[in-house]
Amino acid sequence: MVKKAVILVSGGLDSATCLAIAAEQGFEMYALSFEYGQRHQAELVAAKNMAKLFNVKEHKTVHIGLDGIGGSALTDPGIAVPEGGTEGVPVTYVPARNTVFLSLALGWAEVLHASSIVIGVNAVDYSGYPDCRPEFISAFQSLAQLATQVAIQGEPINIDTPLIDLTKAQIVERGVALGVDYSQTVSCYQADDKGRACGCCDSCLLRKKGFDDAGIPDPTRYVPGFTKNR
Amino acid sequence: MVKKAVILVSGGLDSATCLAIAAEQGFEMYALSFEYGQRHQAELVAAKNMAKLFNVKEHKTVHIGLDGIGGSALTDPGIAVPEGGTEGVPVTYVPARNTVFLSLALGWAEVLHASSIVIGVNAVDYSGYPDCRPEFISAFQSLAQLATQVAIQGEPINIDTPLIDLTKAQIVERGVALGVDYSQTVSCYQADDKGRACGCCDSCLLRKKGFDDAGIPDPTRYVPGFTKNR
Lengths: 230, 230
Prior knowledge:
Structural class of chain A: alpha/beta
Strand order of the largest sheet of chain A: 3-2-1-4-5
CATH architecture of chain A: 3-Layer(aba) Sandwich
Distance between the termini of chain A: 52 Å
Helix content of chain A: 25-40%
Number of helices of chain A: 7
Number of domains of chain A: 1
Number of strands of chain A: 5
Strand content of chain A: 5-15%
Oligomer: homodimer
Largest sheet of chain A: 5 strands, parallel
Largest interface: A-B, 43 and 43 residues
């Protein structure tokens, strides 16, 4: 029987690695992306390219009006994206974003009779978002078991987090070994319309550190004027 | 200090009653509705009217592309709405709908620093949907505690379900006592563009039984040709 997985694909480094891992595990893959009022469309273009490169069975981009709710630098143009690391939960945190994304993945997984939802959350080199922590994932797993008709009927939907205990360097190593072309992924919170990274935001810094620590040349495409080794 | 609540408002009987209860409890009310690809817009018009009647502080209608996911008679025009009661979970079940709705309410509640999310689920006279059961709500409550920055910092968000143990007749009695004008609410799965009910779907039957059992004249506006007392 075909094993199906819904994979959350943002267009960034982590979710590209998730696609590679799910492919290796033999899943029939259904990629899910969201247009939620984020600052740039470059990541959705990257998501589309990644889904195509990994030959997914279907790729859906679902619209959600999270920008109507606001409260984050990623969805509210009135809040600036900070440069460099910050203390505590940063303003780039989008309230309940992973809960919303996983809920929609749960709905699609139920329709597809998929056995897994794959999400590239990481609790090592991450931005401190509450909805990336293992205890959050565990609570969502319990919810998934009760929320769906299929689970009640004996077809559980697993929330797979293949990256949760890896450092960014380990993620990069894993992906490179599986053939991921990271130059085609966009992690930057404020990439330009060509998908080129700012090099200064928290997400860029974490990503760059991953390549540096892994001793792998950073293939990220940066905006003109940004020097990788400054 | 002002107590704030996000109230999920569908435009139907149950959520109108929730508005009345939250108003009585002294909450500053934030009404949240969803345009999710449902069959008709009449319920959104009713939601808007209800929010206005109860003088909410703000009413948001958020778009979610649940119709892209399909799998339900309510979001897929290719699946017919059944007439009369059915065995098991009916085809009007929208996969993960309440999980998705509560997730977005959670995001808004976090932005507002609201202490409650009010949802009109009911586990007595209901359609058998898995995401209306008390154990589902309890799992979502646990998730809410872990998913948000505010909860971690000591401001929990409660999931309030004031109707969960009431029969439809008790809900109607409560609402009438609080002055709800149920003629302005739309419960029907396939109401016409004037908000008139079919009288035949599961939701109409449950609603009609509520008024009958309560001994309260049914104020529902039905489509021409439908006889209430057939």
